[in-house]
Structures are given as structure tokens and as C-alpha cells.
Specification:
The complex is a heterotrimer. By secondary structure, chain A is an alpha+beta fold. Chain A has a single domain, classed as Alpha-Beta Plaits. Chain A has 5 helices and 12 strands. Chain A starts with a strand and ends with a strand. By secondary structure, chain B is of the alpha/beta class. Chain B has 5 domains: 34 residues, no CATH class; 119 residues, ADC-like domains (N-terminal domain of TfIIb), CATH 2.20.25.90; 192 residues, 3-Layer(aba) Sandwich (Rossmann fold), CATH 3.40.50.740; 248 residues, Dimethylsulfoxide Reductase, domain 2 (3-Layer(aba) Sandwich); 129 residues, Barwin-like endoglucanases, CATH 2.40.40. In chain B, helix 8 links the parallel strand 9 and strand 10. Chain B is globular, with a radius of gyration of 27 Å. Chain C has a single domain, classed as Formate dehydrogenase/DMSO reductase domain (Formate dehydrogenase/DMSO reductase fold), CATH 1.20.1630.10. Chain C is mainly α. The chains are: A alpha+beta, B alpha/beta, C mainly alpha. Chains in contact: A-B, A-C, B-C. At the B-C interface, loops of B face loops of C. The complex binds ligand MGD (2 copies), iron/sulfur cluster (SF4) (5 copies) and molybdenum atom.
């Protein structure tokens, strides 16, 4: 079994939102403003025309951080949120009581309510649409024009993601919270 | 993995919903936004998308047609239902990607508003009332009208005007309308899109070429928004290397675009003044002697004249600063840096260059400036690459003696075969045409939204005796039609096989991935049907008026003339697209190549050997030494040469034969000046510049990464990413005018008025405003797009430049007020 | 078997059940309560049709008015339980009269709280099942829910034995109820306190504050219950109790204000993002200044201090403002915890950069939440009819 993670070469992101559409099509996400497993954040640009600070408006593609120490998991009263064999943080809709405590606990706003199951949904690294079929990558990775994402097994030292994380500097979001994200931003 | 049950079980049982839910959600969104008037949109229960693989899984390669790029896709089909479009890594041009629109292709297929069967108008034109008819009834209707019109016009075939949007089957249609029907009155996207840059680069360098952004070290992108206006492979190649990762990017744009967000330097420029900027760059490198002298000497014609021209006009950076608003020091710096990186330095050609009255000369100046660095036909510069030949499929077009020349041919210096949309339309309505254009065919184009000054386009269509529109959606233009011929969606048809040139050339195929859902046809079958219906009756008309034909018949007999001279309008369209494609590939590359192409969607010689997956994200299509960077042959010149500014190893030492008249890069085009009065060398002309009066704004238009012009405006998935367009207006100016975010404002020009929500931002200067093109459809049949946001062409004035008749879309001054 | 032997209660016909004194106030309260319950039922109807879309909750603000109202009721319950235990568990003399009335109040308020949360939790039945099958032992909600369930069980038994005048058992279950109630209640505080993602809530404050504010709430409710019971004409022993209650409340309020001051100071000091800014926003908001502080603490406190606890009639009225203040405390607790957006960047192009998360309760939420107060009134009326809730001086020891 693996421990999947994702490294993001976020400097390449052009905010095209191909990843968001691909995720929606792949995973059958209902439309609606709040319904997304993945997003691209943009800082409001700083400065006054024409002296804008280019660096202040980076694009930050993101999704569930697949925390190794996931607050959403520890607060779940029924263990509906669980770590699967691949270390992916998943929600079992049969067990979810929709208390939305996990939505309070997630520091990344990675969760939302699926109106069909009336339970909480989130990125699951395409586990049930791709990985289960033996595919080795996610819909958002595959479709990206500028190839922002590297998906792979963090436990395999030979995997591309492991090598990349060894070779390149990176950071995680809100690392100080101790959530141990498995999404890494390459600098 | 045992933990897969729950979500799967759910999804298996319930199926889909993306699509259904999409409509419901987006409809709710539409209603919420439209507020009071928000009429209940119809929610049609249509196809379902499953999220779970079924046992009957097929993967069919095809090509995307959500925009002009034609990225390679692999369609996942489960039990005959398209459930996902994935990128096909084999295609060098699309580099294993599908953008947001590409992914949203499923929604286009499932769009409940699609045209589903042929229609004939029953109400007034433009009223949008149609009745469903059979294909035969539709063709019959067209025939009746055509025969009458052509008879009345005495076999002047050019009385049938026609337009087409860019697409893989464009030629199938244009060959029918132009070669078979015989009309010269054709307009397409050229004059509203890229005519000036194609012409400027081709006349100067011998070709438009491709910017080798994969290897360039310094790129100036002026008014090309590659992060949002996606062009493959440019978009992918560019942004993997920006931000200090191999390529410097200088963005010149009045707006801070997503491309500017990747720039090393963003220089906002006064709208319409780029020519002054490029001339000043040129002035700088000439006076500082920083250009690639060796390359210039060997490969530029009339270069001494050009230098003199620039110096005589005194195009100094200070002069340009006053016009462009870009600081003289910045201009100097860019000029120096560019040459320091040359020849791996590119002044990006640009794509939609229908901006101003000086566009053509601007593109010439850019091309010459690029060439002065030596980066032409050279890795890291502008390259021409190779194209793999395909076998041919010829169309036998008859000669019509009475068909006349295009009506607007004198409205600009050089109007090509695809015309000047604006001049052509205006010629029809202002009565200056030498003969009437009485019928109009539109294929895959939406002139009601694409051509500046919508009111005039409407007026033109109203004048027609017959309007036939071939589309997939009930567009605003469809609403003006007498006969609507619905084409099958790109996913439902095979299109003509296409060869894609470049450093890594390949051939790719659009294969049908699902059966047509409705009573629609691909355009080749529409042409076949029309051809069969029209051939004989139109031949009879020609026989009446065409003396040359009468003579031929007298000589050779009617049957022979009819059969051999192409009067059978359906010949050439009788075979299936698949068999035509088969022939075109097999005749050149053999049966195996054809098999590969059908199976994989892409073919090029040695693909099996060359194609490699290097990593999760990287693929190699050709080994480095097999890529076609430099293709133009010339003498190799080895003598040592002293050059002041360019790395000796990078000096382009080839003396090349460019595909221009002089076989050299053309600095001066004296012939054009003599014959047509077009400046031989790029010259700034004050009289062609529209200044922006104090307190008013210049309106500019452009793309958004999640939409394709007007064509995707009804797509539920995309609308969710961006529900409507907003007016960009400078934040401080907006504040002065009491305009806050999302306030409704009125934008008024001399030709029209629209209302739109405001987006006050510092990303645009105080005297320009912008909103995304393609929104604000008027057609009430487009449930989601209808009156969502605003249509820019309602307010854009119908100026066109006088060299090629290309639209000048950024010459409109508007007033803004809060409503 | 005669049920009334097991649980002594007054027998009623429908007519006798509604046979209350037709005073203007009573009639008003009758229709007022009916109106509220009707409203709640209507709200529930809308919820059953539209689900969570009937509420103003969003992805960023997933907890709304119903959660606040749930907290409001369960804090009331714990408060009443604690205050009543002062008498019959801890034998503090002045409080010995409160016993039954307070316990029945505690039962009613927690039942009302459960009724409200049943329409907030998406799958309440599933909750009962998986709470047992796959307990989330690291979850404060699991502990809170489980302990509150147990708590309810204990206080029902406590009431049962009180009603049967079985002092031994009522005391045992009273103590059990108190301990479990305190545990449950501090866990409710921990539901917020454990949120590492939300620095404004994270920490030890809420578990403690919840106990303290529960006691304040309990005190206000006792004033109201007794004010209503005696229609402001208090017998001397009740008067004595109420003066003591005032004094205790004065002390509790003083401690509460002291807590709040330090909480604000520690939150603001250093201006830590998502804490300092939120705290400033919080304590400068009208909800806090007028609702929590003025109505919830200051007015009652001034009356107590100024009258040295003797103005018990005024205190009954002040307890109405007090309870309104308590409502604001619960609302602000839920709302302020969610004020800081967890996604601080813009994710849609034409939007303003995310500021503090906004939430406006919908009519449906108001209908269910406020309606629930009517439910509590009705239950109280019924309890009052069926049981003898007054303290029998004979039985005290
Ligand atoms: N997502 C998406 N991609 C597309 C398309 C699409 O519709 N959607 N369409 C495709 C097609 S057909 C085309 S032609 C290309 C178009 O590709 P581009 O030409 O790159 O796209 P536009 O947005 O039209 O570019 C115009 C840019 O020029 C800027 N501009 C306006 N006036 C001036 C000026 O005076 N000087 C300078 N320097 N800049 C100016 C505008 O602010 C805008 O950013 O995109 C292609 N790709
Ligand atoms: N104001 C303003 N005007 C512009 C531009 C701008 O930026 N601003 N951009 C200009 C540029 S660069 C261009 S290229 C043109 C583009 O202008 P158009 O060529 O008109 O392109 P679209 O607006 O995308 O409209 C395409 C039409 O084709 C239909 N269609 C889509 N797919 C198919 C198909 O498979 N078969 C058939 N038969 N129909 C199909 C769509 O429903 C739609 O009605 O617009 C130009 N006009
Ligand atoms: S697909 Fe890639 S480039 Fe586009 S928004 Fe997502 S991460 Fe950014
Ligand atoms: S909403 Fe569902 S997944 Fe989230 S904490 Fe509650 S039960 Fe667990
Ligand atoms: S990002 Fe949020 S949802 Fe994802 S694992 Fe971490 S806490 Fe859970
Ligand atoms: S990994 Fe899969 S589920 Fe997660 S965001 Fe990407 S596409 Fe969506
Ligand atoms: S760029 Fe996007 S829309 Fe255009 S062809 Fe490629 S995937 Fe399709
Ligand atoms: Mo274009």
C-alpha cells in the first residue's frame, strides 16, 4: 500500500481552472458555487496602477491537503472520515451524520456538502474513480496545461515525488498547525 | 483495496447528475442573478453521466473543438455514454493537456439547448420562431430560394454570400460554397482575428512561423494573453519557464492579465500605441548598435534604408514615452535585454491582432525587430518547422462566367480571399455594392456576436432574401436564420484529418466518439445533401445565362459537361469522411500509419521509436536532433566575424532563403507602396491614432481562459467558474464616479449602449475599460447565456484598417455612468 | 399496574388539562407558546422539503442559528442542573427549595435542545447507530453527545426519585447527573476549544467558560421560573432563596466579566492573525456590546450590586434581558468561531477578496429556533400540570 501525496509546482499555474473542471467531470461533482474539491486561490494584487506588485498575485492551486494528522478525522464522531490504506483521507457517506464538525475543523476549507448523499465530500485523490482502476494519477494532474502537479507515493523513495521533494525546496500550507499536509508547494 | 464501497455504491446506483445537476444549479444561479425578471428556465432532463467505470469501457481518441487549438483527447465511453474527456499525451501540439473548456466538452454535448433537428423560420426574421422540418424539406426550401435568386441575378453566383468560423471542416464547407456554388463573397475570422499579424509576418519573414517558447530566453508578449487566451503549445511552453526558470517574460498590455502575473516586467501601454514602442526599441538597438549585425547583413533586405528611416524619423525612446506612456528607460532596457538574449529572443507575433488602424505596420515592425536579433528560423526564436504532407482530396469546381468579384475588394489596399468582414457587411448595407448580395450562409460562425457593431450585422441579415445557418447552438445568428441546419457536435462526427506543422510535426484525427444524439449531420453530409438538391436546378440556371457553358455544351454535350466539369455539386462529398481520411493518410504513409492514427489519434513517422514518457509530466516527441527548428536552406559561411553584442556561438551564420519576394527578410516593401500606397516601412502615423479624451475611456476587448468567444457562453460547467462578464474599470476612477463592485453601469459608444456590472480594479489604467468578449447573448433559446452579462460588439464601432480591411476593435471611445 | 403509583402524577382530562386561570397574561402566554410551536412546525416542514438549503449556512459557515440555539438550550439545562444540585446534592440551605422545578426545567431544556439539533444534524438516526458502532473517541462531539445522553438519563431518574420523594436515590442520580452533565458540558466547550484551525476558539477558555456561563444561565432561569410560579408574589422562604440567588449571581457575573476581560486581552495582545483581529471585531460588535455585555451581564449586575441583591422583582425582569444576552453569547460563540475564512484567497475572479465570513439566518432557521422556546414553554406547562413541582417543606431534611 502506498502513501500518496502531491507536489505542486505552483509557479507554473496560470489559473485556467482546467483542474477544477476535470475534477468535476471525473468525480461527478454537482455544480454550485460551494461544491468544489479543488480551487485556485489568488491574492488581490497589491499596488496602484501602473505600479503593481507582480509577485503579490501568485496563483495558488489547492485542494484537500490529505493531512497525515488530519483534524477533520480526529473530530469525526462516527469515524466516517478515515484514512484509507493509501493514507488518503476519505469520507464514508454511509457513516457520515452530517454534523459538519469536520468542516469546522479543516483549516483549509477543503470540505463541502454533497447534495445527493447529503454528506460531506472532499478530494480523495480520485481514489474511487481512478486509483481503484489501477490508474496512477489524478484527473487534476493529468489535465493541467502547465503540469503543476506531481502525484505519487511518498513511501517509495524512488518515486518521482519523493525524489522531487528531496531535491527541491518546498513548503506546506499552515504547517504550524501540525496537520502534516501531504500537499507540497515547490519553490 | 477494500475500502471502496460506499461512495462507489452510491454513484453506481444513482448515476450521474453532473449534467442534470449542472443545469439545475446553473439555472438556479441564472434565476437568482437575473432577479425579478428571472423567468423560470426550462430544465430538460437529458443524458446522464456516470462516474463509475462500467464493464463496457471504451477509450476513443479524438480532437477537442471547444476552441481553435484542437487538443488531442481520449474519450472515455461507458455503455455508449461519454463520461470523461482526458488528454491524449501523444500529440506534440497539445502536450497532454485539456483546458477547462476541453473538459467541459461533455456539457456541450449534453447541453439541453442544442439544435436538435433542421428548422425553418415561421415568424418574422429574428423573432426566433421556427418549425421542425425534415432535412429534405430544409434543403428543398433552400433550393427554391437559391434558384430564384440566382436566376434573377443572372447566374452571378457571388450573390450568395457566406461566412465560416475556424474549424477542421471549414474547408469542406468553403469548397462547396466557393468552388461548387461559385461565390467569391466569402468572409471568415481572418479579418476579425489574425489577418494583420499573418500578413505582417508573412510579408516580412516569409511566414507567420511559430514562437519557440520552449527554448526562448527572452519573450516580449504585447497584447497576447497566453495564460488566458490559450494557444497550444505556446501556453504550455511559456509558463513552465517563467518566474526565473529559464525565460524572461516582458508583458506589454494595458491590463494586468494572468500572463502579466507571470512577467518579469509588466508595462501597461496606452491602447493602440504599440507601433511607437517597437519603433523606439528598433531605434535603440540601431543607435546603440546592439543588433545581430552579421545576421542582418546577410538576411535583411533594404536594412540600410530601414535604419535610415528609423533614425530620420527620430523614433527615440523619449518620443515613444510621450505616446505609449512607457518610460524611455524601460524601453531602452527592454531593447538591450532583448538583444542580449538574441537569437533566443522573440517579439511574440500575437494572435488576435484586430486592434487598431496601424496593426499591420506594427506586426511588420515586430517581425523586423525580432529578425534584427537573428532569432528567425532558429531554435529559441521564431521557427517555421515542418508539416507532414497528406494525400489530396480534390474538388472539381465548375467555372461560372457570370460570377463576379467580391463586393468590397476596393475598400482596402489588399483584400484577400477571405475578405474584410466589416467592409463587406457595410458595403451590403450602405448600398455601395456593385451588385446585390441576396443570400447568406453562415457555418460555425456567429457574426451577430463576433463582428463589431451588432446593429449593422442585424441590418445586413435583414436585407437578405435567404439566410441559412449551420450551427450546433441556437446562437444569435441562428435566431436571424430562415433555415437552420444543425451540425452534429464535434464528438459526434469524424472531421477531415489534419496535419499540424512545427518543430515536432504530426498528423491528428478527430474521430467520432458517440453517435449523434439528435437529427443532426456533419457538414460534409449537409453539403452532400445540398449538392444533390441544387445541382440540376442551378445547372439549368447557368445554362440560361452562361455563354461559355452554352458553348461547352454545344461542343461536348450536356451530360459530359455536367459530369466532368463539376456541375454535380455533390461529387467530392459523396464518400464518407472516414474513407476520405483513409485515402489521405494511406496514400502517403501506408495502411499501418492509418491504423495507428485511428487507434491512437496521432501519427508521425517513427512515433513508436521517438515518443517517450520521461516523467509524470514530461514527454518527448522527437529526439532533440530530429526536431525541425531550422529548415530554411542557405550557404554556410564560416569566416570569423566580429560582432559587438551577440554570443559568437549563437550567431545565426546561415544565409537563408526566406519565402519572401526578395528571399530575404523584407525591411521595405516598395512594391506595395507603389501599387497600393501602403507605407513601405513601418511608420507611426498620428492621424491613425485615436486619443482618449479626458473623462472618457477607450474600450478594449479580449479573451477569458474559461470561455471561447461566444461559442461556450451556454456551458453550465464553465458558467459556474465565471457566471458573467464584468467591466474592468480603474478602482480610483470608479470610486470618483461612485461605482462600487457589482454596481450596474452603462457603457455607451456612438453605436450602442450596454449595461454591465462593474469590477473596479487597479489592474487597468484610468482611461481604458475592458470586458470579456462573448457574453450577453440575445437569443432566448440559450437558456443560460441569454442576457447574461454584456455583448461587447453592441458598442464596438465598425472601424477597420485600410491595408487588409482588418477590424480595428480598440478604436472605440465610451462613456460610463452608474445606473 | 397503576402508573401513578410508580410515578405520582395528577390525572387530567383534556378539559382539566387546559383549565388554567384565564388571566390576560396566561392567555397571552398560551397563544404565544402555541404560535411559537406552530412556527417551529412550519419551519420543520420547510426543512423537510428543502433540506439544508432552507438554512443560511454555507461551506464557510456550516454552523448557524440552530447550533447556537442548541447550545443555548443545553447550557440552560446544565445551568439548572448545577443550580438545583446546590440544594439537594450539596445541601446548601437556601437552594433546597429549587429541586424538582429546576430538574424538570433541565430535562425540558435539554429535550428542546435535542429537538433543535435533530434538524441541524443531517442524519440523526444514523448518528445514534454509528455513535455506538464506530465511536469516534477523539471527537468532542462524540463525547458531548454520549455524555449528554447519559446526563439526560440520570436527571430523568433524579426527577423520578425526587418525585417519589426517594432522597437517597435522587441524591445519587443527582450527583451522577451533575458530574456527567459537567463533563458533557465542558465537552461542548471543547467542541469549540479543540478547533486548532480556529485560533479564536482554540484553547482552555471555552470548557471553563461554559460551566460558568451555565451557572449564570441557570440563575436567570430560576428567577424566571419562580417569578412565573408566584406571579411576583413571593412567599418569604422563596424570597430568602431569591435574595441568595441574586447574591450568588452577582458573584458569578463578576467572575464572568473578569474571565471575559482576560480572554479579550489575551486574544488581542500580540495581534495574532485570525485571533487578535477577530477578537477586536467581536468586542466592538453590537452583538457583544449591547447583547452580551449590556443585556447579558451589565444590567442584572448593576441591579444586584445597587440593591445588594434585594431587588428580586427587578431581577426577574432583568433575567429576561439576561436570557436575551445569553442568547447573544451562544450566537456569537458559534458565529465568531467561524468569522475568519479558512480560504483567505479569492477563488472566483469577479468577487471581492474574502473578508470575514458572513452569515444571515434564514426565516426557516428563526422559525425552528425561536419556535423551540414555545416547545419548552408547552412542556413546562404540561409538567406543571402533571407533577407537583413545588417544594414540600415537610419533605426537606
Ligand atoms: N481561453 C480561450 N483561449 C483562446 C480563445 C478563446 O476564446 N478563449 N480564442 C483563440 C483565438 S480565436 C484567438 S485569436 C486567440 C487570441 O489570443 P490573444 O490575442 O492573446 O487574446 P486577446 O484576449 O484577444 O488579446 C488581447 C490582449 O491585448 C490587450 N490589448 C488590448 N489593446 C492593446 C494594445 O493596444 N496594446 C497591447 N499591447 N495590448 C492590448 C488586451 O488587454 C488583451 O489582454 O486566443 C485563442 N485562444
Ligand atoms: N468584440 C470582439 N469581437 C471579436 C473578438 C474579440 O475578442 N472581441 N474576437 C475575434 C476573434 S479572434 C475571432 S477568431 C472571432 C470568432 O468568432 P466566431 O467564429 O463567430 O466564433 P464564436 O464566437 O466562438 O462562435 C462560433 C459559433 O460556432 C458554433 N459552433 C461551435 N462548434 C460548432 C460546430 O462544431 N459546428 C458548427 N456548425 N457550429 C459550431 C457556435 O455555436 C457559435 O455560434 O471573433 C472575433 N470577434
Ligand atoms: S489546471 Fe494547472 S494551470 Fe490550470 S488552474 Fe489548475 S493547476 Fe493551475
Ligand atoms: S460531517 Fe460526517 S464526516 Fe464530518 S465530522 Fe460529521 S460525521 Fe464525520
Ligand atoms: S485538508 Fe482538511 S479535509 Fe483534508 S485532510 Fe486536512 S483537515 Fe482533512
Ligand atoms: S485528486 Fe481527484 S478528487 Fe482530488 S482534486 Fe484532483 S481530481 Fe479532484
Ligand atoms: S485549448 Fe482547450 S478548448 Fe481549445 S482545443 Fe485545447 S482543450 Fe479544447
Ligand atoms: Mo481568433
Amino acid at each position: 500500500m502506498a502513501r500518496y501525496g502531491m507536489a505542486l509546482d505552483y509557479k507554473s499555474c496560470i489559473n485556467c481552472k482546467a483542474c477544477e473542471s476535470a475534477c468535476k467531470e471525473e468525480n461527478g461533482i454537482l455544480l454550485g458555487a460551494d461544491n468544489h474539491r479543488i480551487w485556485v486561490g489568488v491574492n488581490e494584487i497589491e499596488g496602484l496602477f501602473p505600479d503593481l506588485s507582480i509577485g503579490s498575485s501568485n496563483f495558488q492551486p489547492s485542494q484537500c491537503q490529505q493531512c497525515d494528522n488530519a483534524p477533520c478525522q480526529s473530530v469525526c464522531p462516527t469515524n466516517a472520515t478515515y484514512y484509507d490504506d493509501n493514507g488518503v483521507v476519505r469520507v464514508n457517506p454511509d457513516q457520515c451524520i452530517l454534523c459538519t464538525y469536520c468542516m469546522q475543523a479543516c483549516p483549509y476549507d477543503a470540505r463541502y456538502i454533497d447534495d445527493r448523499t447529503v454528506t460531506v465530500d472532499k478530494c480523495n485523490f480520485c481514489s474511487d474513480t481512478r486509483l481503484i482502476h489501477g490508474e496512477t494519477t489524478t484527473a487534476c494532474q493529468a489535465t493541467c496545461p502547465t503540469k503543476v502537479r506531481i502525484f505519487g507515493d511518498l513511501d517509495d523513495p524512488e518515486s518521482e515525488i519523493s525524489q522531487t521533494l528531496r531535491d527541491r525546496e518546498h513548503y506546506s500550507l499552515k504547517a504550524h498547525l501540525g496537520t502534516k499536509p501531504k500537499l507540497f508547494y515547490l519553490t | 483495496m477494500k475500502t471502496e464501497i460506499s461512495r462507489r455504491r452510491f454513484l453506481q446506483g444513482t448515476v450521474a447528475l453532473t449534467v442534470v445537476g449542472a443545469t439545475a444549479a446553473a439555472t438556479a444561479l441564472a434565476n437568482a442573478e437575473l432577479g425579478k425578471e428571472g423567468k423560470k428556465s426550462k430544465i430538460v432532463d437529458f443524458g446522464l453521466t456516470k462516474t463509475q467505470y462500467s464493464d463496457k469501457l471504451q477509450e476513443i481518441p479524438t480532437l477537442c473543438e471547444m476552441c481553435v487549438n484542437k487538443c488531442a483527447a481520449i474519450a472515455r465511453i461507458e455503455d455508449g455514454v461519454l463520461t470523461k474527456l482526458n488528454p491524449n499525451p501523444l500529440f506534440p501540439k497539445s502536450r497532454n493537456m485539456l483546458c477547462a473548456r476541453g473538459n467541459a466538452g461533455i456539457q456541450a454535448l449534453e447541453d439541453p439547448d442544442r439544435l436538435k433537428y433542421p428548422l425553418i423560420r415561421v415568424g418574422e426574421r429574428g423573432e426566433g420562431k421556427f418549425k421542425r422540418v425534415t432535412w429534405d424539406e430544409a434543403f428543398e426550401y433552400v433550393k427554391e430560394k437559391m434558384v430564384t435568386i440566382i436566376d434573377e441575378e443572372k447566374d452571378n453566383r457571388s450573390t450568395i454570400g457566406y461566412c465560416a468560423g475556424e474549424g477542421m471542416a471549414e474547408h469542406t464547407y468553403t469548397s462547396f460554397m466557393g468552388d461548387k456554388i461559385g461565390s467569391s463573397n466569402y468572409v471568415n475570422h481572418g479579418s476579425i482575428c489574425l489577418a494583420t499579424t499573418i500578413a505582417g509576418y508573412t510579408l516580412t519573414l516569409g511566414g507567420y512561423g511559430q514562437a519557440d517558447l520552449e527554448n526562448a530566453e527572452y519573450v516580449i508578449m504585447a497584447g497576447a494573453n497566453r495564460a488566458e487566451a490559450i494557444v497550444t503549445p505556446d501556453t504550455m511552453d511559456m509558463f513552465k519557464r517563467t518566474k526565473g526558470r529559464g525565460s524572461k517574460l516582458i508583458v506589454i498590455d494595458p491590463r494586468f492579465t494572468n500572463t502579466a502575473a507571470h512577467a518579469d516586467k509588466w508595462l501597461p501601454i496606452e491602447v493602440g500605441t504599440d507601433l511607437a514602442f517597437v519603433l523606439a526599441l528598433t531605434y535603440t538597438v540601431i543607435t546603440e548598435e546592439r543588433y545581430n549585425k552579421r545576421f542582418a547583413e546577410e538576411n535583411l533586405s533594404d536594412f540600410e534604408d530601414y535604419k535610415k528611416h528609423i533614425l530620420d524619423h527620430n523614433y527615440t525612446p523619449e518620443w515613444a514615452e510621450a505616446i505609449t506612456g512607457i518610460k524611455a528607460d524601460d524601453i531602452r532596457q527592454v531593447a538591450r535585454d532583448f538583444m542580449a538574449h538574441a537569437p533566443r529572443a522573440i517579439y511574440y507575433q500575437g494572435r488576435r491582432t484586430a486592434w487598431s488602424l496601424q496593426d499591420y505596420q506594427l506586426r511588420r515592425a515586430q517581425a523586423i525587430f525580432s529578425a534584427m536579433g537573428g532569432g528567425v528560423d532558429k531554435k529559441g526564436g521564431i521557427i517555421f518547422g515542418k508539416k507532414l504532407p497528406l494525400g489530396d482530396h480534390s474538388i472539381n469546381g465548375p467555372m461560372y462566367d457570370n460570377a463576379q468579384e467580391r463586393i468590397e475588394k476596393d475598400k482596402a489596399a489588399s483584400i484577400g480571399a477571405s475578405g474584410s468582414w466589416i467592409a463587406w457587411r457595410n458595403t451590403i448595407i450602405d448600398g455601395s455594392a456593385p451588385y446585390p448580395v441576396r443570400a447568406f450562409f453562415a457555418y460555425k460562425q456567429n457574426p451577430m456576436m463576433s463582428i463589431p457593431n451588432t446593429a449593422k450585422t442585424k441590418q445586413m441579415l435583414e436585407k437578405m432574401d435567404l439566410v441559412v445557418v449551420i450551427d450546433t447552438m441556437p446562437s444569435d445568428t441562428v435566431m436571424m436564420a430562415d433555415v437552420v441546419l444543425p451540425e452534429s457536435l464535434y464528438l459526434e462526427r469524424e472531421d477531415p484529418v489534419k496535419s499540424f506543422g512545427g518543430a515536432e510535426p504530426s498528423i491528428a484525427l478527430r474521430k467520432k466518439v458517440v453517435e449523434a444524439k439528435f437529427d443532426t449531420k456533419p457538414v460534409i453530409e449537409i453539403m452532400r445533401g445540398l449538392g444533390m438538391k441544387l445541382s440540376k436546378p442551378l445547372f439549368e440556371v447557368s445554362k440560361k445565362y452562361d455563354e461559355a457553358l452554352q458553348e461547352e455544351i454545344a461542343d461536348r454535350g450536356e451530360k459530359e459537361v455536367y459530369d466532368e466539369d463539376g456541375y454535380d455539386l455533390a461529387d467530392g462529398y459523396r464518400h464518407s469522411q472516414e474513407s476520405i481520411n483513409h485515402h489521405m493518410v494511406e496514400s502517403v504513409y501506408g495502411e499501418d500509419a492509418w491504423k495507428t492514427l485511428r487507434e491512437k489519434g496521432v501519427f508521425y513517422p517513427d512515433m513508436d521509436k521517438f515518443f517517450k514518457k520521461l516523467s509524470v509530466n514530461e514527454y518527448e516527441y522527437y529526439p532533440e536532433h530530429k526536431k525541425s527548428y531550422s529548415i530554411i536552406k542557405g550557404d554556410l559561411n564560416n569566416e570569423p566575424y566580429h560582432d559587438t553584442c551577440v554570443d559568437i556561438n549563437e550567431i545565426a551564420v546561415l544565409k537563408k532563403k526566406f519565402r519572401t519576394a526578395t528571399k530575404k527578410i523584407a525591411c521595405a516593401l516598395y512594391n506595395l507602396e507603389k501599387k497600393k500606397g501602403v507605407d513601405a516601412m513601418p511608420t507611426w502615423r498620428d492621424e491613425l491614432y485615436t486619443p482618449t479624451p479626458e473623462g472618457r475611456f477607450k474600450f478594449i476587448t479580449g479573451r477569458h481562459g474559461q470561455f471561447t468567444q461566444s461559442g461556450t457562453a451556454n456551458n453550465a460547467l464553465l458558467l459556474e467558474l465565471l457566471p458573467e462578464n464584468y467591466l474592468w474599470i480603474n478602482k480610483r476612477v470608479a470610486k470618483e464616479k461612485g461605482i462600487a463592485f457589482a454596481d450596474l453601469v452603462e457603457v455607451k459608444s456612438s453605436v450602442g449602449t450596454i449595461q454591465i456590472k462593474a469590477y473596479p480594479t487597479e489592474k487597468i489604467g484610468p482611461n481604458a475599460v475592458f470586458f470579456i468578449h462573448g457574453f450577453g447573448a440575445d437569443s432566448s433559446e440559450l437558456t443560460l447565456a441569454h442576457h447574461r452579462g454584456a455583448n461587447d460588439n453592441t458598442i464596438i464601432e465598425d472601424h477597420y484598417e485600410k491595408t487588409f480591411g482588418s477590424a480595428a476593435m480598440h478604436e472605440t471611445i465610451v462613456d460610463i455612468r452608474r445606473v | 399496574m397503576d402508573l401513578s403509583k410508580l410515578v405520582p402524577f395528577n390525572k387530567h382530562t383534556v378539559r382539566s388539562f387546559f383549565d388554567f386561570e384565564r388571566s390576560a397574561l396566561n392567555i397571552f402566554m398560551f397563544w404565544f407558546s402555541m404560535g411559537l410551536v406552530g412556527m417551529m412546525l412550519a419551519g420543520i416542514g420547510i426543512y423537510l422539503i428543502e433540506g439544508h438549503h432552507a438554512y443560511g449556512v454555507t461551506r464557510q459557515h456550516a454552523w448557524g442559528l440552530l447550533i447556537a440555539m442548541y447550545v443555548f438550550f443545553v447550557v440552560s439545562s446544565t445551568g439548572l442542573c448545577i443550580m438545583s444540585s446546590l440544594g439537594h446534592v450539596f445541601n446548601i440551605k437556601a437552594f433546597q427549595i429549587v429541586g424538582k422545578r429546576a430538574i424538570i426545567g433541565a430535562i425540558i431544556t435539554i429535550l428542546t435542545g435535542f429537538a433543535v439539533i435533530a434538524f441541524e444534524i443531517g442524519h440523526p438516526v444514523r448518528m445514534v447507530i454509528y455513535n455506538v458502532l464506530t465511536p469516534g473517541l477523539t471527537s468532542a462531539i462524540w463525547w458531548m453527545g454520549t455524555l449528554y445522553g447519559l446526563y439526560l438519563f440520570f436527571i430523568i431518574l433524579e426527577f423520578f426519585f425526587l418525585n417519589n420523594a426517594n432522597h437517597k436515590f435522587s441524591k445519587i442520580f443527582g450527583l451522577a447527573g451533575l458530574v456527567v452533565g459537567l463533563a458533557a458540558h465542558s465537552n461542548l466547550g471543547a467542541v469549540f476549544g479543540f478547533l486548532v484551525a480556529r485560533p479564536i476558539a482554540n484553547g482552555v477558555f471555552f470548557p471553563l467558560y461554559f460551566i460558568l456561563s451555565a451557572m449564570v444561565t441557570g440563575s436567570y432561569l430560576l428567577f424566571l421560573i419562580y417569578g412565573w410560579r408566584y406571579k411576583m408574589k413571593f412567599p418569604p422562604e422563596v424570597k430568602g432563596f431569591m435574595v441568595t440567588l441574586s447574591q450568588v449571581l452577582g458573584l458569578l457575573l463578576a467572575i464572568l466579566m473578569f474571565f471575559e476581560v482576560w480572554r479579550a486581552l489575551t486574544a488581542i495582545y500580540g495581534h495574532m492573525p485570525e485571533r487578535g483581529d477577530i477578537a477586536i471585531h467581536m468586542i466592538t460588535s453590537k452583538n457583544f456590546l449591547i447583547g452580551e455585555f449590556l443585556l447579558g451581564m451589565l444590567i442584572p449586575f448593576i441591579i444586584i450590586v445597587w440593591s445588594k441583591g434585594r431587588a428580586i422583582k427587578a431581577m426577574v425582569y432583568a433575567s429576561i434581558t439576561g436570557m436575551i444576552g445569553i442568547f447573544f453569547m451562544r450566537y456569537d460563540l458559534v458565529h465568531d468561531t467561524q468569522l475568519a475564512p479558512m480560504m483567505p484567497l479569492k477563488i472566483r475572479e469577479y468577487s471581492l477578496p474574502p473578508g470575514l465570513v458572513e452569515y444571515i439566518p434564514t426565516a426557516t432557521e428563526w422559525m425552528i429556533s425561536l419556535g423551540a422556546i414555545g416547545l419548552a414553554f408547552m412542556m413546562y406547562y404540561a409538567a406543571d400540570r402533571f407533577f407537583n413541582l413545588d417544594h414540600d417543606p415537610e419533605e426537606s431534611h
